[in-house]
Amino acid sequence: xxxxxxxxASSLRRLAALGEPGTSVxxxxxxxxxxxxxxxxxxxxxxxxxxxxxxxxxxxxSDGPGxxxxxxxxxxxxxxxxxxxxxxxxxxxxxxxxxxxxxxxASAIRPYGVRAVLGLPVRLGAVTVGTxxxxxxxxxxxxxxxxxALGRYRDVIESTLAAAVAAHNAGELAAQLQYALDYRVIxxxxxxxxxxxxxxxxxxxxxxxxxxxxxxxxxxxxxxxQLVSSGRLPMxxx
Length: 238
Known about the structure:
By secondary structure, the chain is an alpha+beta fold. It folds into 2 domains: 5-171, Beta-Lactamase, CATH 3.30.450; 174-230, Arc Repressor Mutant, subunit A, CATH 1.10.10. The protein has 9 helices and 5 strands; from the N terminus they run H-H-E-E-H-H-E-H-E-E-H-H-H-H. It has helices at 5-16, 25-40, 64-76, 80-87, 103-109, 144-166, 173-198, 202-215, 220-230, and strands at 44-50, 56-61, 91-93, 117-124, 127-135. It has a 5-stranded antiparallel beta sheet, sandwiched between helices. Strand 1 and strand 2 (56-61) form a beta hairpin. The longest helix is centred in the C-terminal third of the chain and has 26 residues, at 173-198. It is globular, with a radius of gyration of 18 Å.
C-alpha cells in the first residue's frame, strides 16, 4: 500500500495536537479520521471509545456513513468494530450487508453505503478502550498489507491518546476512559464466565452483560462483579 508522505506528515501533526493544551480531543480525533481517509484511500473511518458502561460509542468520524456505522454497532451490539473491542483483535468483513454473523447490523446499515469494514482495537496500555474503524463503499477483501499499515496508524493514535490522558487533556472523555481501564479485567472475567456456563460466544456473553446492566440500571462492571462472585446475573434465580 503506497502512502503519500505529505499526507502522512499532515496526519501526524494533527495527532500531535492531541497533547496540546486547549485542544479538543474529539475535534482532533475527527481530523485524524479525515486524514486516515486521505492516507489509505478508504471511503471513510471513525473512532469509538468505551463509555462509562464500557460499551464502545461514537466519538469521531470522517463522514455521515462512518458515524452511522458506529451508532448502529453501539445500538445492536454487533459488527466488526464491536467484535474487535470485545476480543481485542483485528476483525475484517468483506461486506457487512451480506454478513450472517451480524444480521441486525447488516439490515440496519444497508441504506448508508457501508460495505467492507475493518475494525482495529485501540488500547491504553494493555487495555482495549475503543476501536479504529475504516470502511469502503463497495465489497473489498482486506489484504495483509492494508491491515498492517492501518495497524501502524492505530498505534500512533494509541500513543497520542495516552499522552493526552497523561497531560490531563482528555476532558469529558477522561472519566469514561478511566472506567474502561478500571473495569476491563472484571468485565472480561464476566464474559468468560458466561461463555463457559452458557456455551455462548464472547459477543453473545457481552450482550448479556449489557442487557442485565440496562435492565437493572447498573453499571456493567458491577454486573460482571456480581456474576463472578455469585455465579448469577442480576434477576437470575438462585
